[in-house]
Amino acid sequence: MKKLSTIISGIIMLMLLSGSISAGSNTAINTAESSAADYVDNSILLAQADTAASGTEDDIYLEDEMMDDLDEPHESIADPLEPINRAFYHFNDKLYFWVLKPAAKGYSAVVPEPARRGVKNFFNNISFPVRFVNCIFQGKFEGAGYEVGRFVINSTLGIAGFMDRATSQFEMPEYDEDLGQTLGSYGIGHGFFLNLPLLGPSSLTDTIGSAGDAFLEPMNYLDMKTKYDLSIKAVETVNKTSLRIGEYEDLKKSALDPYVAYRDAYYQYRQSQIKK
Amino acid sequence: MKNRFIRHLTAIFILLFFSLTIKAGEATDRIKAATDKLIEIVANHDLDAPEMAEKRAKMIRETVDEVFDWSEFSKRALGKNWRALSKEQKNEFIFYFSQLLERTYMDKTRNYSGEKMIFLDEKIDGKYGTVGSKITLSSGKDAAIEYRVIKPGNKWFIYDVYVEGISLVSNYRSQFSTILTKSGYDELLKRLKAKVDEQS
């Protein structure tokens, strides 16, 4: 009995210790910090946004020399077609403010938000083959399995995909993979930036990717006249926009060069998706 | 024997408590405190009245200034161009750039409708670190927000924010370098000032 309690508490203690060691290693590294002594007071002064006393002010920017990051070349996407891209940017900008946004606003006045989320989930669920195949292309077999599970759960329990039960109840989040990311994961670069009319920001590789993905998109196989096809696309677009009103406005408002901000946001977003 | 067991138990509880307090992380605590304070301000409807707008803005600004290191933001957003500036120019740039970022932050709080922020993890490497968090948007989607933090003295400060993998600093750096290459620093400062004026 005595032995048992000692053993048990010993094991628990060990577990806890290892836990606190791994957590504590943060602070351990902290103390092993290098000689950044003169940096210390400077940034605090600046962070207070005060113009500091003149004595220490001379030292304020000393640490510039220590910042290697300053000289690191900034990663960005090539943009040889900038003049055309900018022209399309202005076109899409007007299209958004004059057509898409008013349409989305009118639509959200009629359709309540939960229903709009449902429509989004519905379209998302149908695009399952795109994600599934690209998971496989990238060797993400677990992701492919998850996607199958998600499709089954959401198509049944989620009532034809209108509810994302897989995420909300089974903690199976979506694996958002597409052919552009697949090509990226094979080491194929973006090529260059392309801002397409109506479709918005893309890159050479991503444009080729979405053309390929179109073959996997079940919506494209619906045997319907083009006009119905178009209106489905329109519903999807307006619905999606209605859930994101304000995002583009925010970006534009806080940017000094909205086109570059937009291009960079696209590039960074895609890069982070490829890394996932 | 019983006594011994109790002693073991106490030791376990002390350790448990200790490990939990370490796990939360200093940087996370700082950001969380500021976020909680911001939510309190934003959720306080007494401050919604037009005559309180100035007070509200001031309270938000003070809270944000407490955790954001604007000089680090400015430095990184200008990259190597930072070195070419004189001390006065640097201070001027920090002043206007911080105003632009504060306004952006303030605009974001205007759309706030009770979204919850969850802090996920904290990674520290020397005086740098990252704090991961996520916020559930009104559209039902989770947005990943990652804070990059630096500890110049005894406190952590935010020097960059990644929203869904997009770095705020990098985004500005692209814009700034485009303007600097095409038109030079004076034009950049002019546009920065104009942007701040336009928003106020």
Provide a brief overview of the structure.
The complex is a heterodimer of chains A (276) and B (200). With 276 residues, chain A is mainly α.
What descriptors fit this protein?
heterodimer, A: 276 residues, mainly alpha, two-stranded antiparallel sheet, 13 helices, B: 200 residues, alpha+beta, Nuclear Transport Factor 2, Chain: A, 7 helices, 18% strand, globular
Explain the overall architecture.
Chain A is mainly α and 276 residues long. Chain A has one domain. Helix content of chain A is 64%, strand content 3%. Chain A contains 13 helices and two strands, in the order αααααααααββαααα. A two-stranded antiparallel sheet of chain A has the order 1-2. In chain A, strand 1 and strand 2 form a beta hairpin. In chain A, helix 5 crosses helix 11, helix 9 crosses helix 10 and helix 9 packs across helix 13. The longest helix of chain A has 30 residues. Chain A starts with a helix and ends with a helix. Chain B has 200 residues and is α+β, with helices and mostly antiparallel strands. Chain B has seven helices and five strands. Chain B has a single domain, classed as Nuclear Transport Factor 2, Chain: A. Chain B is globular. Chains A and B meet through helix 1, helix 2, helix 5, helix 12 and helix 13 of A and helix 1, helix 4, helix 5, strand 1 and strand 5 of B.
CATH top-level class of chain B = Alpha Beta
Helix content of chain B: 55-70%
The computed structural class of chain B is: alpha+beta
In spatial order, strands of the major sheet of chain B run 1-2-3-4-5
Radius of gyration of chain B: 21 Å
Give the ordered list of helices and strands of chain A: HHHHHHHHHEEHHHH
Outline type of chain A? globular
Shape of chain B: globular
Quote the distance from N terminus to C terminus of chain B. 72 Å
- The total of beta strands of chain A comes to 2
Specify the number of helices of chain A: 13
Q: For this structure, what is the CATH homologous superfamily of chain B?
A: Tgt2/MlaC
Encode the helix/strand succession of chain B as letters: HHHHHEEEEEHH
- Terminal CA distance of chain A reads 50 Å
